[in-house]
Amino acid sequence: MTKRLKVALLQMDIQAGDPDANFRHVEELLHKAVSTEDKPQLIVLPEMWNTGYALDIIDSIADREGQRTKQMMSAFSREHQVQIVAGSIAEQRAAGGVYNTIHVFGPDGAEAGEYSKIHLFCLMDEEKHLQAGGELGTTEVGGEQAGMMICYDIRFPELARTLALQGAKILIVPAEWPNPRLNHWRTLLTARAIENQMYVIACNRVGTSGGTSFFGHSMVIDPWGDIIAEAGEEETILTAEINPELVTEVRGRIPVFTDRRPDHYRLG
Ligand SMILES: O=C(O)CCC(=O)C(=O)O
After folding, report:
1. How large is the ipTM?
2. What is the span of the domain harbouring residue 74?
3. Residues designated as active site
4. What whole-number distance in Å separates Cα of residue 65 and Cα of residue 169?
5. For residue 153, which atom of ligand 1 is closest to its CA?
6. What are 99-112's pLDDT values in tens digits?
7. Per the structure, how many domains does the chain have?
8. How far apart are the CA of 199 and the centre of ligand 1, in A?
9. Ligand 1 neighbours (beta carbon < 6 A)
10. 267 inside domain
11. What separation in angstroms does the CA of 7 have from each of 39, 256, 261?
12. Is residue 181 part of a domain?
């Protein structure tokens, strides 16, 4: 039987430095996302949705150990039996430092995966205020393995390839990707989908912050590289249906994974 999954991407504006406003807004959008007849099985949020890029004050506003996020998301996912990839948040850790971290909650409310951004984006001064993650992040979506990357990470094809080689059929990408690089956003996401023959589910923010504007264009790309859903530049909940069996079919049509010649690759 074909196993199809409905996904919803919360393409939202974010108030820099105002976690209370952002939590309120996310709660509204979550309710809206599940209040349709076509209820999604998976909801994805954008990057750093709790604080935005208020990096100068990030130490004082980041979520302590992610507790506030965990409480809200775990309760919501359990009540509505929906999986949530809770975008990424700025998370203050007791051991020291703020991380840009994704937490995943299964439909039973239990934590089902975690990933902290590995490649910090120096154009936004991330490396001055945030700590880099050190591990890959995976979760399960509808019984299939999914890998996670955050925004700038999509410029590093090695990371997506590693996740695919480890079994991921779906790549989930929360982002705050700004103007004027829409061409890079669409091209890099499509390339990750085509070269790894996997679904890419990418949720970007909209709005402006400190002179930077964000164009949205959240999208879902199938393993053939076709964009099956794409948002515009306004706040919206983008929905799509994915069929992980298509990954197996596409990998069978062009056998990239069996034709790889890793002995010829010099990857630093
Ligand atoms: O790579 C880019 O152009 C954007 C990356 C970015 O904005 C981020 O990682 O937050």
Report:
1. 0.97
2. 5-260
3. 47, 117, 151
4. 29
5. 9
6. 999 999 999 999 99
7. 1
8. 21
9. 121, 124, 151-152, 155, 176-178, 181, 184
10. no
11. 9, 27, 35
12. yes
